[in-house]
Structures are given as C-alpha cells and as structure tokens.
C-alpha cells in the first residue's frame, strides 16, 4: 500500500472512531499529505468534528473541506429564528461582548461582524453559533483590535509556551509585527502544534497568526 492509500485509510479509520461523526456519508482522498473530505453531514458541528478528526492523523499536512451540510427536513429552521437564537446565545455567554457583535443570517449561513479586544472572544462567538440547529455555515468577520505593543505580545506568548506541559518551547520561534505573529520550528505532533497556536492567539492584541510550524515525520 503506497503512502497516499495508507493515509487515506488512517483518516477513514479515525472518522469511524469519532462518535460525533457519521462516517458512512464521508469520502476521503489523500495526496502528498493533503486530505480532502467530501460527502455530506447532518450539522455544522459534525462538519467541524470531521475536520478535527482528520487533522489528528499522523502524516496529515492539510485538510480540504468539501463536505456539505444537509439538514433533515424536520431540522430546517427559518433565518429569523436562527438570528433570534444567535443573539440570545451570544448574550448568555459571559465571555462574549455581545453588544460589539453583529449577526446576519441568510439561508442558514450566519455571518458575524463587529470588533472585540481578544481573539478568544472572537472564537467563543463562533463556537456559540456552531451549536445552533439549522446553521449551515458560520462566516466569522469579527475583527480583533490590537491593544498592546508588539514587545508585550512576544513576551506573553513566550511565557505561555514555557508554562505549557505540552510544548518544548526552546525550539519554537516567535516573531511579532504589530498584531501579526509568525510561528516557526519543529514540533512532535499535532497536539503540540495546536497548543502553540492557541497560546499565540490567546495573547492580547494578536490579530493574525501565521503557522509555519512543521510536525516531525510529516
């Protein structure tokens, strides 16, 4: 079995293993470490779970998502109802400054806008919307307003990496220009890579993260 076929089978096995994904409706192809998922799923949450499952597999360098969200007839929800529930769930989440966020819904696609001070607030708003039934996709246009100097961002990222038990911080390069962070170096696995990227996004004032990290063995 060549490398592409082996990677394809590993991803298929991981999707079958993931309890939140109905793998029977998902197709997988692999070429030179790039995995493409096709077919359909029953919710946006399931689509996101399938992507995360594929990324967990050793040897996966990138994932192309061509999955379609197909809602069962009894789960289709009118746009105005989705919008009302979106506003309500954002107001309930204490991590989200709901008054700074706008919501637009069209044919089940939710577009978020506005400006927040932290990346985790932007992420939390998107995660809240993903939970709602009837949502086919989320377009997150919320921007993060830089709050601190580049030197402060760099120091906070380095400190977070050194605190993490999952990361060997000494081999990681962090460069900061304004609110843009570039990460370089080699990590042991996807878990370590995700932890480093998470630490970068968690620093105040970060607006973009360029992930140039390499997973050893891929």
Gyration radius over CA:
19 Å
Mean pLDDT: 83
CATH topology of the largest domain: Histidine-containing Protein, Chain: A
Tell the overall outline: flat
* DSSP, total strands: 10
CATH architecture label name of the largest domain? 2-Layer Sandwich
Low-confidence stretches: none
| Count of helical regions | 6
Intertermini distance: 17 Å
What's the domain count?
3
CATH class of the largest domain: Alpha Beta
The secondary structure category is: alpha/beta
Order of helices and strands: HEEHEHEEHEEHEEHE
Binned, the helix content reads 25-40%
Could you explain the architecture of this structure?
Helices cover 37% and strands 29% of the residues. It folds into three domains: 3-70, Histidine-containing Protein, Chain: A (2-Layer Sandwich), CATH 3.30.1340.30; 74-144, Histidine-containing Protein, Chain: A (2-Layer Sandwich), CATH 3.30.1340; 150-215, Histidine-containing Protein, Chain: A, CATH 3.30.1340.30. By secondary structure, it is α/β, with parallel strands linked by helices. The model has no long low-confidence stretch (mean pLDDT 83). The relative contact order is 0.11. Helix 5 (150-163) runs antiparallel to helix 6. The chain contains six helices and ten strands. The strands form three sheets. Strands 4, 5, 6 and 7 form a four-stranded mixed sheet that branches. Strands 1-2-3 form a three-stranded mixed sheet. Strands 8-9-10 form a three-stranded mixed sheet, with helices on one face.
Question: How does the SSE layout of this entry go?
Answer:
Layout: H1 3-17, E1 26-31, E2 34-41, H2 44-55, E3 62-69, H3 79-92, E4 101-106, E5 109-116, H4 119-130, E6 137-140, E7 143-144, H5 150-163, E8 173-177, E9 180-187, H6 190-202, E10 208-215
Parallel strand pairs: 2-3, 5-6, 5-7, 9-10
Antiparallel strand pairs: 1-2, 4-5, 8-9
Helix pairs in contact: 5-6
């Amino acid at each position: 079995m060549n490398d592409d076929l082996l990677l394809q089978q590993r991803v298929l096995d991981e999707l079958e293993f993931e309890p939140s994904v109905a793998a029977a409706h998902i197709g997988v192809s692999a070429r030179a470490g790039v995995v493409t998922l096709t077919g359909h799923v029953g919710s946006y949450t399931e689509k996101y779970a399938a992507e995360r499952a594929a990324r967990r597999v050793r040897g996966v360098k990138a994932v192309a998502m061509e999955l379609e969200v197909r809602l069962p007839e009894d789960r289709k929800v009118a746009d105005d109802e989705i919008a009302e529930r979106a506003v309500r769930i954002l107001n309930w989440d204490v991590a989200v400054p709901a008054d700074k966020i706008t919501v637009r819904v069209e044919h089940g696609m939710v577009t978020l806008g506005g400006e927040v001070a932290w990346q985790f607030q932007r992420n939390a708003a998107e995660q809240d919307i993903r939970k709602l039934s009837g949502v086919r996709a989320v377009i997150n246009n919320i921007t993060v307003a830089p709050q601190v100097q580049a030197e402060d961002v760099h120091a906070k990222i380095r400190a977070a990496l050194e605190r993490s038990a999952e990361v060997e911080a000494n081999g990681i390069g962090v460069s900061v220009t304004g609110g843009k962070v570039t990460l370089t170096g080699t990590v042991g696995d996807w878990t370590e890579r995700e932890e480093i990227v998470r630490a970068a996004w968690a620093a105040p004032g970060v607006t973009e993260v360029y992930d140039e990290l390499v997973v050893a063995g891929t």
